[in-house]
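Lab notebook page, bench 4
Experiment: in silico fold of construct C2
Operator: M.H.
Input chain length: 447 residues
Purpose: comparison with the prior construct
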Amino acid sequence: MYPLNGGINVAQVPEQIAENEMQGCQNFIYDRDSARLVGRGGLEKIAEMESEITGLHYDLDTNTIFAFLSNRDCWQLVMSSGQPQMKYLDKIAGPRHPKCERFKDKIFIASGDHLQFYDFSPTEKLKLITASPLCDRLFYRFGRLAISMTGSDRITYSSVGDATSELAWKENTNDDSSCKWLDIGSDDAGDIMEVVPLATDMIIFKSNGKAYQFVGDADFNSWAVYNVANFTDLTADFSAGICATNIGNEVVFLSLRGLKTLSTTQDYGNIAATDIGAKFNKLITDKMYEPEMINMRRHRMILIRPTADRSFFVAYNYGLNAATTLKFAFPITAIVETKDDVFVASGNSIYRWTITATQDDTTDIEYIVKPRAIISSDEILVKAIDTKFSSDHAGNAELTIGRLKVDMPTNSRRKVLCNHSTDYVDVEVKSSSRFELDHIVLDIANL
């Protein structure tokens, strides 16, 4: 039963899945360098805020995290190996979940009101751009800052190289570098849900399930919009701004039927929609409620929170097209990946997600692996169990096959002789100690 690089498969009965697939796999992820199945790290508290944290954003250029609180406060956290340095930046203007984008030397924030920005000056705080349209999402394109608002069909582009002045958001038909705008599918009765880069173009999802391709270059006269999909199943049932992302030349998005992609092709029409979560979509669609996704690019992994349970995530590794599940000890409100670490918010606390932590704060982590089952019309004799697990500290894992229970070390190899007969071999490994799974080998014979 190795290597288990096929991920979870709940689309078929346990004895019919592939040898490299699993019935279940909790609190394991695929190592970003070796593609091995490894137990996730724990959560180590590094900071506490005054109110509940609702969002985190990371700025790579300054190694800074922006924390957004339920009372609309915004804090800047300069990360280090110990406690972060914190600075209060004022309140965000709008009531929506804030989105951030770096444009030139500033961070811009869209939250359902006018744009705000922060220029990293030691004495400065957030500044409001009253000349900008209301917006709750933003992105950078063609040397301009682009914004849009849920409930609207319009994408508005700032003037070239400027998004803070009053003239930056004023259209001048005699000046090609001035503010420009474009309505996306204005006659289709849907509203913009997501705007995602795809190669040199943009894909715009709307609340009626349609998707549009925005093509063109820095010359706004080249801008054009094409309807490339009509039944994406990304609808108004989802929360705007957290259901789609890009990985290379593909846009990955959540739909009523699970995980899908839109990707570039060489065929006529040049955009194709594909289901990619067939093996594990049941984990996403069962009891789906306002799902969201977080793209952890340095780990080649998308975390999907599919239900109202904020402690449960599906971890999709897009390098292997394989998924596992994660179960944290408490509800998670935000996750952000930095150049060195991953940080997690829960309640009013910020945690470092790290392999040096063996618990989620003070709560044990339960690691579970259930490989493919083996069924026979006759009795099967399990004569020996051989496991090899790796860990940097000693621990035990309980391996169960029906009524047979055996303790195996999590930091070495062990072979156990046994005499267990059954017509259904269903292996489950459980442990509260983090380990890497090298192999599980059964010596079996038909009776």
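Observations: The radius of gyration is 25 Å. The chain is about 0% helix and 50% strand.
Next step: discuss at group meeting.
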